[in-house]
């Protein structure tokens, strides 16, 4: 990738507390178009809170959010969806008793003259799956209950990009998958980025992170301690960042007041 790339999402100085518990501390976080940003951190580091703040489930106590260069205030998931931000949560939020088309359009059904337009929804679903190079599903009318774990994940991801999404957040997408299904989902993750979307991959699996990520952003005890190109770190360094907040000259430097600062190393070029 050549030339400067402006972030789609640009969080600056975000703080979030729940009562006396300060969960996010002056967090800066950026998501770039055409790139996979791995968001990593130990349990309780603040990953889920950061994502839920991004989509408006939580409101930040302070800080700024810019989307495509302009300041925005996301009051809820509908605002996030209107901007083009979609999240595929770990539980996938699919209905087993519905087929693929019905799941992809659940809550956003296409109607014509007050009736469901099944033909239009089938065509849009087929086009979306084809555009993502998904060929593992026998029929778009098969029940979700008949799908494998990898196929379910594929449907959930396809559902998230059906609405002209610009950013897709994937929450532990390979957590319960086998080797072949994991490879399928990771390939789909790369295809999302290749189509110009900004992709956030939340994962504890370092193999997955180093397989598909362009950048890695690490949270440690609610602080963003590193946001660097994946090419500049190795697995051991990322593990150290996750567990201690620092690895060599990368990570949180503590000043006299005990405040942490991020090693950002600039955006992508």
Key features of this structure:
single chain, 269 residues, alpha/beta, Rossmann fold, 6-stranded mixed β-sheet, 4-stranded antiparallel β-sheet, 27% strand, globular
What does this structure look like?
It is a single chain. The protein is an alpha/beta fold. The protein has two domains: 1-84 and 168-269, Rossmann fold (3-Layer(aba) Sandwich), CATH 3.40.50.300; 94-164, no CATH class. 29% of the residues lie in helices and 27% in strands. It is built from eight helices and 16 strands. The strands form five sheets. A six-stranded mixed β-sheet has the order 6-9-10-3-11-12. The protein has a four-stranded antiparallel β-sheet with strand order 2-1-4-5, covered by helices on one side. Strands 7-8 form a two-stranded antiparallel sheet. Helix 5 packs parallel to helix 6. It starts with 8 loop residues before the first strand and ends in an 8-residue tail after the last strand. 42% of the residues are buried.
SSE ordering: EEEHEEHEHEEHHEHEHEEHEEEE
Rg over CA atoms = 19 Å
Number of domains as seen in the coordinates? 2
| Adjacency order of strands in the biggest sheet | 6-9-10-3-11-12
CATH superfamily of the largest domain: P-loop containing nucleotide triphosphate hydrolases
């Amino acid at each position: 990738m050549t030339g400067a790339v402006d972030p789609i999402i640009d969080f600056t100085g975000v703080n979030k507390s729940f009562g006396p518990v300060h969960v996010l501390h002056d967090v800066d976080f950026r998501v770039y178009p055409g790139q996979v940003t791995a968001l990593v951190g130990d349990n309780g580091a603040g990953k889920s809170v950061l994502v839920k703040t991004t989509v408006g489930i939580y409101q930040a106590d302070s800080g700024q959010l810019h989307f495509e260069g302009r300041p925005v205030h996301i009051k809820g998931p509908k605002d996030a969806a209107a901007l083009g931000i979609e999240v595929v949560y770990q539980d996938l939020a699919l209905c087993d008793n519905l087929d693929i088309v019905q799941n992809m359009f659940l809550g956003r059904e296409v109607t014509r003259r007050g009736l469901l337009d099944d033909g239009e929804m089938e065509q849009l679903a087929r086009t979306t799956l084809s555009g993502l190079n998904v060929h593992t599903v026998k029929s778009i009318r098969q029940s979700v209950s008949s799908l494998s774990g990898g196929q379910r994940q594929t449907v959930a991801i396809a559902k998230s990009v059906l609405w002209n999404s610009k950013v897709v957040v994937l929450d532990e997408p390979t957590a319960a998958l086998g080797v072949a299904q994991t490879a399928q989902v990771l390939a789909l993750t790369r295809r999302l980025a290749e189509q110009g979307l900004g992709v956030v991959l939340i994962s504890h699996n370092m193999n997955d992170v180093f397989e598909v990520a362009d950048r890695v952003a690490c949270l440690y005890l609610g602080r963003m301690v590193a946001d660097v190109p994946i090419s500049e770190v190795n697995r051991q360094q990322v593990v150290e960042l996750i567990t201690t907040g620092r690895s060599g000259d990368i990570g949180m430097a503590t000043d006299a007041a005990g405040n942490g600062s991020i090693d950002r190393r600039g955006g992508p070029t």
